[in-house]
């Protein structure tokens, strides 16, 4: 996403900088509501930028005010290293704060990559205030969670610590703290051992 005065990263939703939040027009009237737009998964940012350009070019900035791709920080373990990534909460969806009329509906609906609005009876249905608040809270959760490809009962090999090279099976996963409880056979008995995600690898 290109950097400009209407960047896809803006201060918003409580003053916090949120990746995927684009303010097109900060003068937002009370009647503007949040709507859910369906798009192709994996192309949300590009579609949002295309929509922003069309809204500006077709003079709909008095109807479409904000675009949001809800994301949350996750710590990813890959090749034995930790990295923080932005994971989309709703892959394949963009939120738009707008006033829906024939013109604004047409601009959104005919933007490349958008397949339609989410709604009932073929009509866009706005999110309730409760739903919007829940999404805001979810985005702003402070502690990043771990993103892992491990699963319960999966066989793993321990790569670090006193049980290096032992084999075991995953009993439980604590994604919030990046921990695993692994059952290791010690003296013929299965013993639970708590390990960091970085201390094991899949077999």
TrEMBL record:
GO biological process, any: transcription antitermination
Keywords: Transcription, Transcription antitermination, Transcription regulation, Transcription termination
GO CC field: cytosol
Positions of the KOW domain: 149-176
Function description: Participates in transcription elongation, termination and antitermination.
Family, similarity comment: Belongs to the NusG family.
Name of the protein in its database record: Transcription termination/antitermination protein NusG
Designated gene of the protein: nusG
């Amino acid at each position: 996403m290109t950097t400009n005065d209407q960047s896809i990263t803006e201060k918003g939703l409580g003053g916090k900088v949120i990746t995927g939040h684009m303010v097109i027009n900060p003068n937002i009237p009370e009647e503007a509501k949040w709507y859910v737009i369906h798009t192709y998964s994996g192309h949300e940012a590009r579609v949002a930028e295309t929509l922003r350009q069309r809204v500006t070019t077709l003079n709909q900035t008095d109807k479409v005010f904000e675009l949001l791709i809800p994301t949350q920080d996750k710590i990813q373990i890959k090749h034995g290293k930790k990295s923080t990534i932005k994971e989309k909460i709703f892959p394949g969806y963009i939120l738009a704060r707008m006033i829906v009329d024939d013109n604004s509906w047409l601009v959104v609906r005919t933007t490349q990559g958008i397949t339609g609005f989410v709604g009932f009876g073929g009509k866009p249905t706005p999110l309730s205030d409760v739903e919007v608040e829940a999404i805001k809270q979810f985005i702003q959760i402070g502690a990043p969670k771990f993103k892992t490809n491990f699963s319960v009962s999966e066989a793993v090999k321990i790569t670090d610590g006193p049980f290096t090279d032992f084999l075991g099976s995953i009993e439980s996963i604590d994604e919030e703290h990046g921990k695993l409880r692994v059952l290791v056979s010690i003296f013929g008995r299965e013993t639970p051992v708590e390990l960091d995600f970085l201390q094991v690898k899949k077999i």
